[in-house]
Amino acid sequence: MIKKAALFGIASLLVLAAPAQAAEGPSDPEIAHIAYTAGTIDISAARQALKKSGNKAVRAFAEEMARDHQAVNEKALALVKTLKVTPADNAISASLSRDAAATEERLAGLEGAAFDRAYLQNEVAYHKAVNGALESTLIPSADNGDLKALLETGLTLFREHQAHAEHVLAELK
Of 24, 29, 61, 107, which sits most exposed with the smallest number of CB within 10 A? Predict the structure, then answer.
């Protein structure tokens, strides 16, 4: 049930990341908003895990997520300031925010090992979906070379996050 709900929310990212009406994909301001929103969501999820989990490995993973996503978001904010670009809210970032709120609420009702498993399952699915969207839509759609480079750096880091989440989850079982 938990895994299905997480995957349903993540599936919306993949569907929305490739809108049929715009073959060229989202604009740079939209990409900036999507990327920042995705990072903010993972920071919030990490904070929730730090409040709820007593598992040392889960807490270490959550600390890494908060630190790394905060660093990427700070670089993104600096870049949009330098480029004088205003991130543009869009259907993808709005959907991500709605799905994240539902996931956070669902996880809030869990405790102990059940929370740890659900949090890590969500992190695996979330990073897999975000990585897929970065590869298939966001990076190819980015026009600005600096934005594209930041997204590519993020993709490398987020692939590592996915592998780390998979490893910690496997250790829990």
Answer: 24
Residues 139, 108: Cα–Cα separation, whole Å: 33
| CA dist., res. 132 & res. 144, Å (int) | 20
Please answer whether residues 76 and 150 qualify as being in contact, where contact means their C-beta atoms are separated by less than 8 angstroms: yes
What's the pLDDT score for residue 85? 87
Tell me the three state secondary structure of residue 20. coil
57-78 pLDDT per residue, tens: 999 999 999 999 999 999 999 9
pTM of the model: 0.86
What's the Cα-to-Cα distance from 54 to each of 3, 74, 114, 123, 173, rounded to whole Å? 21, 29, 12, 17, 16
User: Between the CA of residue 80 and those of 6, 41, 43, 73, what are the distances in Å?
Assistant: 30, 19, 20, 11
For the chain, give the percent of residues with pLDDT over 70.
87
Q: What residue type is 87 in one-letter code? A: P
